[in-house]
Structures are given as C-alpha cells and as structure tokens.
Amino acid sequence: MDNPRSMHLLLLLSVFVIATCGLIYELVAGTLASYLLGDSVTQFSTIIGAYLFSMGIGAFFSRYFTRNLLSWFIQLEILVGFVGGVSSCLLFMLFDQVASFRLILYLLVGITGTLVGLEIPLLMNILKNRMEFQDLVSKVFTFDYIGALLASIIFPLMLVPQLGLMRTSFFFGILNVAVAMVVLVKFRKEVKWARYLTFQSVIVILLLTAGFAYADRLMHMAESLAFNEQVIFSKSSPYQRIVLTRNKDDLRLYLNGNLQFSARDEYRYHEALVHPPMMCHQQPANVLILGGGDGLAAREVLKYPSVRQVTLVDLDPAVTELFTGNKMLEKLNQGSLRHPKLKVENEDAFQWLRHQNKTFDVVIIDFPDPSSYSVGKLYTNTFYRLLRGVLTTESTVVVQCTSPFVAPQSFWCINTTLQQSGYATLPYHCYVPSFGEWGYIMASPGNVADKGLPLPQHLRSFSREAFAQMSFFAEDMRAVNLPVNKLNNQALVHFFEKEWAVYQ
Amino acid sequence: MKLSRSEFLRYMALLAGGAYVAGCHEGGRYNHITGKITGASAAVGHRLREGQLPAPQQEIRTKVLIAGGGIAGLSAARALSLAGMEDFLLVELEASTGGNSASGSNDLTQYPLGAHYLPLPNPENISLLNLLEEAGILTGYENGVPAYEETSLCFEPSERLLYNGRWQEGLIPQFGIGPKDETEIRRFLALMQTYRDKKGADGKWAFDIPVANSSSDAVFTSLDCSTMAGFLRKENFTSEPLLWYINYCCRDDYGAGIEVVSAWAGIHYFASRRGRAANADSSAVLTWPEGNGRLVRHLRKFSEKQTMTGTLAYQVEQVGNEVQVHVWDHQKQQTTKIIAEHCILAIPQFIAGRLLQYETPSHFTYAPWLVANITLNRLPEEKGAPLSWDNVMYNQQCLGYITAQHQSLRQSPEKVQVISLYWPLDQLEPTASRHNALKLEHKDWVDQCMTQLEKMHPGIYRQVNNIDVQVWGHGMVRPIPGFMTAPKPTEPERISFAHSDLSGVSVFEEAFYHGERAAKRYLNSAAHS
C-alpha cells in the first residue's frame, strides 16, 4: 500500500478515532467522578478543565518530538489506549482503597489528557510534508471535531446504557490500540522499533480485551473490596440489598450493608435466640418465626420432637428463596426451609398478624435492628399488643434486641415496651464474636420460667448452665427510666441512632 | 381585581418566584401527568342564584330537615339520633356527605380532600371526647387522662421543614437562625403559654375551643380590634423566621395570613389547646390516611337512612308553625317540598343568607383553597430529616404536603405514594382569587403545583404520574378583625344555623359544636311545646 492518497486517508481516519476516544475518556472520567463523588456540575467542569489543560501541556511538549515521528505516534496510541482503557476500572477499584481518591482521579485525567494532547500535533507533523498545509489543517480539525461529536452522542445514548462505564473505556482503549496496529502494519517500512511496538500493542490489546470480557467480575471485585471479603452473591430485592460474602470458610450475609450472620459463629446467636423460649414452654408444638428468612432459627426449632408446625413469616421472598435453593446455604440451615413441618409466608409481619386467629406456643422475633422508622414500627407497643392475639398465657416470645453493651438504652427501651404491653419479661444476652455482646428479651403474657423441657443434644454453646450467666447483666449493660416505644414517638429509633452513631 | 386566566397565572408565577409564559409549559415537561379537577358542585350551587326551578311535584313531612351534610350537619343528625329522635332528613348537594372532611381513594390508599387532622380535644370538651370514645379512637382513661388508639395518633416523624436547603425536624426554624431569632421565638412561645393559662373575669378560659366557650372579658376580646400583624409589631416581634412561622400557622388554620386575621384569632391558634393524652405528648394530633374522613365515616352511621345526596335546598320559609323547604334532586331533575317542624341550616352563612333572603353580614368572608392529591413514585431521600407526615418549605406559597400513607404499618417501601399538597389561595382578595381559581384548567394547576413541588424536590416531575385537584371556592371562613365581637346572626324561631363559620374558625371542633347546639335547640323547643 504505497498509494499516498490512501495513506493520508488512513492517517486522517485515525484522527477521527483518536478524537472519539479522547472525548470518551473525558466523559467516562466526568461521569465516574460525579457517580462516585456526587455534585455532577463541579465534577464535570473540573474534569473537563483539567483534561483540556493537560491537552495543552501535551501540545506544548509535542515540539520536543522531532525524529521517528511515526514510531512515537504509534507508541503514544498504545499508551493512550492502555491508560484510558483501564482508567474506569482502576477508579472503581481504588475508590474505597485510597485516602485521596481525587488525587488519583486527576492524575489519571492529567496523564490521559497530556497523551491525547500530544497526538494531534504529532500527527500534523507527520502529515505536513505529505499534504498542503491549508488542506491539512482543514482536514485534521474536521475529522477531530466530527469524532468529538460522534463521541458525545453515542456516549450517553448507547455506551453507558448498553456497555456500562467499565466496558466503554476498555472498548475505546482497544480501538485506540487498534489504530496503532493498523498504522504499524501499513507503514511498517517507515517505522522504527517495529517489533518492539508490535509486541507491546499485542500485549495491551489482549489485556484490554480480557478486561472487556470480564468487566462484570471486575465490577464485582470492586464491590467486594468494599466488604473486605469476596462477594459471592448480590441482589437488590424491592426491600433491600442482599449481599453474601465468603472469606475462606466463613460465609456472611449482609442486608443493606448490615451483617446478619457469620457462618463461623451464627450458632451462638441462633442457639441463644431459640432454646431459651423453647425451654420456657411445657411442650412447644406450634412455633412462629417472624423474620429469620435465612432458616437458621428454624433449624434450631426443628431439633425438638414436640414441634409439629413451624410458620416462618419473612417479608422478602428473595431471602427465603436464596436460602432454599442454594446448596452451600442449605448446608448451613440444614434444609430447614424445605422441611415438611415448615411453612414459609412472604408477608409483612404487621399485616400478617392482623389476619391470624391461630395461636402459637413459641414466637421467635428476629427482625432487623431498629435503624429506620419503618422497622421501628415492629418494636412498638402497638405491635406487641397485636402479637398478643396469637398467644395464650402459656406462650413464650423472644425478641432479638440489638446489643445491650453498645446500645443499653435501646435494649431496655424494648424491655419497657414489652412490659407496658402486658408481658412479663426476662432479658438476657450472649457473646457472638462477629456481633459482640448481643441482647434478647423473652416475654410471656403469663410468666417466663424454665419449664424443664429437655434441650436437644449436641448444642454447641447453649446449656442451662450457660443461661444462668446470660441472664445476669453487669452494670455497664444496664439503663433505667426508659420510655415506651410507640408509633407516635419512635423512641427506640432515636436511641438506636444515637447509641450506634459512634460505631458508624 | 379581575384578571384573565393568563394574567392570573402570570401573577401566581410571579409570587412563586418563577416566570410564566402563557402557552409555554416548559416544552411540555408535565405532559405525562394525568388527573382531573374535582370540587364542590359550584355549577349546581349557582342554580340557587339563578332560580327558575320547576314547582315541587311532591311533598314530604318530617320533624327536622337538616340542610348540609358536612361535619355540622352530620353532628346535628347524630345528636338527634342519640336523643332518640330519628324522624329527620338530611339533604346534601354533593354525591356523598363529609363536606370539608371529604376523602378520596385510589388503588394505593385513601387520602384527604380537605381537613386531615384533629388536635387532642381540651379536657372540658366532653362532647367531643365522647364522640371519639364512641368511634373507638379514644380507648379509655388513665387517671382521668384519655388514652388514644395508637394507630390514630400521628406517627413519628410528624413534621419537617425545608429551611436553607436542609430538612429539619419540626416546623419552627431551628438551624441557621440567629441568636436574636432564637430569643424572639422563645419569647413568643412563652407569651402564648401565658395566654393559654389565662382565664377572664367571667372564669372562662381566655381562649377556648369551641370558640363560644372563650371568655368575653374585654381584656381579651379587645384583641379582636387589630390584626395579628399589628399585635406582633406592638409586641416588638420582628424576627423573620418567627413571623414566617406565625403567618404559616394562620394560613394553615384560617386560609389567611397575619395581615388579615385578627390578633384574637392569631393568638387563639396558639393559646386555645390544652388537650392531653395518657399515651402521647400534648402536641400530638389524631390523623388517618383518609384525614378527617375517618370521623365522617363514624358520623354517617347516625343518618344513613335519612340522607338524601345530590339534593339541594333552594328555598326555606317559615310558614306558621312549620318550615317549608324546597329541594332539588339534580340527578332526577325533580323538586320536592319538605315540610318540617324545624330546619337546621348546616351550611355557610353566605348561602343561608341567600336562602332566607337576608344580607349576609360583611364580616363573613371565605378563603379559597386548593388541595392537590399527587400520585408519584417514591420521594427522594434528602439531606436532613426524613420524609414526615407534614412536609413544609420555608417562605413558600403553598403550605407543603402531607403523606397519606404515613399512618401505614407496612414495612414494604411503597413504590408509589400519594401526597396531598395544601394551598390557601390568598394571593388576591378572596373574591378575585376564587373567581380566577375557578377559571383555571387542569394543566394550569399541574403547572402551579409542580412549580411548588419542584422547589422542594428539584427534578421530581419525572416521578409524578397524576394530580387530582380539589378547588374549595369557599374553603374557610376568615376570622378578620371584628369577627369575634360582631353580633351573631339571629335565628328565626324554627330555623337554626349550624356551621363552623359561625365561630369564624373553620375547624372540626367548631362544626361539631354548632351541629350539636342546633340539635339541642330543637330538642329543647320540642320538649317545651
């Protein structure tokens, strides 16, 4: 291909591609910055400013390139493709990891801008001896601006919705390097260090292609870095974000970023949750579990031969389905959610209770912590009075009640609320390493006392002897004079917010 | 001040701080929003003025005819029914009773079309406490203090205010105000507390609900001579956030601001409530998804068989020992003469005057209102206090919005919500404002409401699906200076008046009081004859 006209065309086409890529990198950086840092006006204008300024720096330095222009141009293309291509992936990964994310952001924008700024002047220098100057300027800038227009249109309309940010930058990185390779092949006679450049461009293109292909996993990793563990499942249900992580042999469930259990010590939590109310009933046959869609409390309940039926009411079918279908998780809950004695109802507990006429011997309440007004309603006197409708005087109830060490006022506020709603209570606590010192309150319309029901064999931590210690509260876990939690004061949510604030 | 539709719109936009260009709805960005205008059947009501209805073809006899099925009419019916007097009829112009406490519903929720809450009744207001107990809203007494149904008490968080770009708890500006403002706010609230605790020489509370039970001691009634704004100037209150707050409260309860209402009425708002609850703060309010529609549902039970809806009383005349009332059923297009021993006109004075052919006293003026029920996808979470029952923006034309689903016990975040925007149309004098408001089309109201809502939540228009607009032409009586001390309209022997406007304060308690009072007047006269 020695026809000079087609050579010119090729170089001009590469201007077009370069311009498109250049603007895309700028848009990716701007979008990412406003996505991660917020305040899109500031982010976009500072990114665009920094980018244009860096291009100016690049243009300034172009004067120092006087020989082997074509080779430098190819080298530049490979570099731009690499830096621009990996930029969004790098930014996603580093967002939670580095102290000064902005520094990294502007550094990347600066490097990309400088390299892009070098490209056009370099290309013009290459073409200046092959074309009329007037013709050259006109053509180069025409292609440059058309490329920019194309980029600005396809970026919001096609690329972001179809490919996502990470794939977009990988894709344009590949295009950039592809330009380098085509020029390399077509002009191989004029290019110095051709083998070295070929080698380099192949490596970079492979790297970027791999990034493009595995963008989903990379995205996943970025998320798992934030959790310090490997995310093995994540899903947004209409109610919450469900994330399951694994770290060696530990499996953890997070709902909306709050740890629900760690497989290493969940037995401590669930044994302490289930066995006390069971042993305080003569012969528990009908058991109700509110919340607890992971089936772990149900696993403990099903260890009692006297139990005939377990009803599990959990709002979110996404959670109960996850813990029904998955082998690894079923190993953990021992397939409790598929047990013939167990019935799952995916309903709102408040609404569900309103339409019940059955009574239950034991009720296990394993709701999320009262961190929002909507969950706070499930800890009010109105809720506990409604609950009374499904109880007999013999029934026992247990409520998971956050940490009496971190949040004593929250814990004892629930106790006051239960007492004021007509229950006798028995508060206790248990140490769960991944949670810390955790609290529970047993309650009954009658009295709460050990009825001598034999405990299942092979419990790992709970025993009657252990329970004697659990029901003793040291001075640093006590609080007095707490109000009743009501729909019209949401006192608990206020306490909870205040007491956990230091740990956030 | 007569304005064309576009002039009025431009004027409203100007007040709202925006620019309005006739026919240019910002590139039709609200075109996706559906909805309709609902409202008191003004067209039917206007037939009253025009006359020309056919002569009655039939005659009915009853002991008491109640004209008007708002809270006053329904309360009168209840009082009669409780006294064992079931021989009465109630005629209501609209398709259903409820008046200003009417409610609507869609697939998601019920929502109020007007009045939407009831503050805790004062301990002396036994009738009202009994009503609430009867409805199951008051569940019992603890040491003499009433306990209320938990689901009827407004859930926390109840109020938030958007001030200086940040949502804060409560409606009194707290953050970002100066020390002078803080001092004045404290001084004002303390002053109102002293008025709340005061009794007149006649041993009555200086300010009470119902208004009729308030002291007639001149020390207090003299406050009826000046405006609230005049009183505040005299007392040296100049803090902008404080004046905004007081003005907000007056517009909320009276449909008119501090420059319009009397000092007596302005103070009454802050100093007349001494209600308590065993299970809530004294500042608590009772509210329901359907607003005071909950109370209407209970009151209706007492007049189910006696109610004739879609029916307008257009002529009332005392003839000898009976009252002859001509009514028009606008669905069947037929007129009926109802002959009664007594008639209770549970309608506003401006209509009563027309029926009885006397000039309604000039101090009866009525503020037009707008209530817009807006269906939208979830409201965004913003800086500061979370979505509350009542959500208000500082220095705004409308009074903000309440969330109909606030009293819901559901966990699930509803994807679609209904909010009710409240807006007293007090930019112009009531007559001009009403006149102009009734001319507006649905799309004009959408523009108006969205301008207000967009200020609170920029970009929210994308989330909005539907806006139903309820225009209350004569929404609330305005307690202007001189109202409280003006002589009450005289009632003919066999005709009683029952409406909250007689108190000058358009609230549930007053309507209920006047309904019961009128029923008692009849029962007493019947007992003596």
Automatic annotation (TrEMBL), chain B:
It comes from the Bacteria. Pfam families: NAD_binding_8 (PF13450). InterPro entries: FAD/NAD-bd_sf, Zeta_carotene_desat/Oxidored. This is NAD(P)-binding protein. It comes from Chitinophaga chungangae. The lineage of its organism: Bacteria, Pseudomonadati, Bacteroidota, Chitinophagia, Chitinophagales.
